[in-house]
Predict the 3D structure of the following.
Amino acid sequence: MFENLSDRLEKSFKLLKGQGRISEINIAETLKEVRRALLDADVNFKIAKQFTDTVKHKALGQEVLKSVNPSQMMIKIVHDELVELMGTDKTDINLKSNPSVILIAGLQGSGKTTFSGKLAKLIRSKRSKSPLLVACDVYRPAAIEQLKIIGTQVEVPVYTEPGNMDPVSIARNAIREARKSGHDVVIIDTAGRLAIDEEMMNEISSVKQAVNPNEILFVVDSMTGQDAVNTAREFNERLDFDGVVLTKLDGDTRGGAALSIKSVVNKPIKFVSSGEKMDAIDIFYPARMADRILGMGDIVSLVEKAQEQYDTEEARKLQKKIAKDQFDFNDFINQIQQIKKMGNVKDLMSMIPGVGKAVKDLDIDDNAFKSIEAIIRSMTPEERTNPVVLNGNRRKRIAMGSGTSVQEVNKLLKQFDDTRKMMKMMTKGGNVTKLMGRK
């Protein structure tokens, strides 16, 4: 997401390089390029103009410190305005009632059902709640079955009423069932349409009136750009929803919906998600997203993802092994498993400042570790714990057993040795614990 916008903004800032200060003359071309970049990203025209006018007002007459050049000053101003545009700070969902009722709305194909499952998993694993998913999409073929499959994946029960075609009564009965069975969060997945129609709006309004939800989330496909923003406006007029969810971020390189929607409906973006994996959901942080747009990475989110997979005790054990030079291939493959749990490798790399641009054109998929795992699993227990025994004959056997070449085995051994040396250096001062342990 935002690849095109990031590239265009970077080029526009270069126009100020070599300038001693920001002036009305040298800022004009830069702001013209910034406005074009926003419009190409499918940002609403009025918002793009207002954005550049605000940046111009703040930039003109700014005293540029000796240590900061005009280009850097402009990046700072644009960054701050992007944060403002997207909502300033993260906004949490309301889970104060028992049960807390969350109504999921949106057009068909926006990813409502998948998001409902992702949200249920997030609430169960990170909020220590007991959610109940409710199948109120009684029109789309196999919608109920899809929610059941997702419910099994995320280990959350799904409430259904076979044969009942009234979403209002299903929702009411589901809340009654939640109270009876001890579920403290109810997530209602409602029906969508291919386009907004009166019947659809009346139905979801009736569900809202019947269950009085604590939270209404509008799910929107970010790939639809300004259409997404217009749809959000119409839904908000009828539902007065509490927040927006942007889905399919991995399929859009423009990002206009994320930049426009807050200004148009004056409702916060609460979650973003990408892909079908149930872990691929994130709380929306405007400042972190602005960092990523401007190529600064998102190291805070990366560390948080790492902390979710590691606990302090595991980090201490690993640190001791590394310090004693006992880090072996069993530990190595465990680290790979932890990294895979964190999400898509390319997405993780893009969070590292300066790395995002370098990897954007590389084809890095989730199978990047497949051959490494195959090689390690072809080793004997002794070879894993004591790699120095890996002579030529053993390497040939491992290559044959893993379906790789001796060169690939040799390459992995070199990478392993380099990793071990690097991690041993990191243990000085307890850096491994600091990085991987919870604070």
Observations:
- Confidence is low (pLDDT under 50) at residues 429-439.
- Residues 336 and 369 are 7 Å apart (CA to CA).
- Strands lie at 100-105, 131-136, 158-159, 185-190, 215-221, 243-247, 269-273, 281-283.
- The two ends are 30 Å apart (CA to CA).
